[in-house]
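About this split. The held-out portion is used to measure sequence recovery: a designer receives only the structure tokens and must propose an amino acid at every position. Recovery is the fraction of positions where the proposal matches the reference. Here is one held-out target exactly as it appears in the evaluation file.
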């Protein structure tokens, strides 16, 4: 089964725990890169280990949660090999796989309800990269690394 690396800051902690359980219930293996409580932390400290897990192949995908998801996406996208996007609805989750071959998804723990984040993860994990006309575009992004 697919290995997923997960991380959050304090603002995403509660939903990270909830979503981790949701994924584990489905049989995914989750590597938890913290944080481990609601104590205030800096989101890049958790985004980078998750991004490195995905870039190194230790995990196939990454899931990050902070207040908005924005800071997590900014930090994760700095790691070579990562295509992270901040997603707030299932349609964009599908499109970030189909068109952009995203390997990390970043979620909002403060502005998006858990049930919506679950539906976002369902779409993210159910959708394959479309290839074809999208392939060269994604390659051009990765050449920036
Ligand atoms: C923390 O207050 C907040 O800035 C962080 O969780 C995230 O939303 C950053 O993008």
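Reference sequence for scoring:
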């Amino acid at each position: 089964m697919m290995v997923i690396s997960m991380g959050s800051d304090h603002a995403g902690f509660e939903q990270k725990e909830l979503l981790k359980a949701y994924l584990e219930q489905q049989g995914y293996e989750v590597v938890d890169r913290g944080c481990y409580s609601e104590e205030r932390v800096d989101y890049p400290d958790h985004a980078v280990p998750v991004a490195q897990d995905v870039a190194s192949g230790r995990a196939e995908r990454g899931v990050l949660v902070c207040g908005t998801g924005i800071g997590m996406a900014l930090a994760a996208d700095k790691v070579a090999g990562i295509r992270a996007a901040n997603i707030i609805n299932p349609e964009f989750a599908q499109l970030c796989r189909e068109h952009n071959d995203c390997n990390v998804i970043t979620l909002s723990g403060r502005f998006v309800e858990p049930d919506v984040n679950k539906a976002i993860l369902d779409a993210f994990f159910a959708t394959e990269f479309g290839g074809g006309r999208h392939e060269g575009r994604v390659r051009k992004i990765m050449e920036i690394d």
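Annotator remark: The pocket of D-ribose is lined by residues 9, 11, 43, 66-68, 70-71 (CB under 6 Å).
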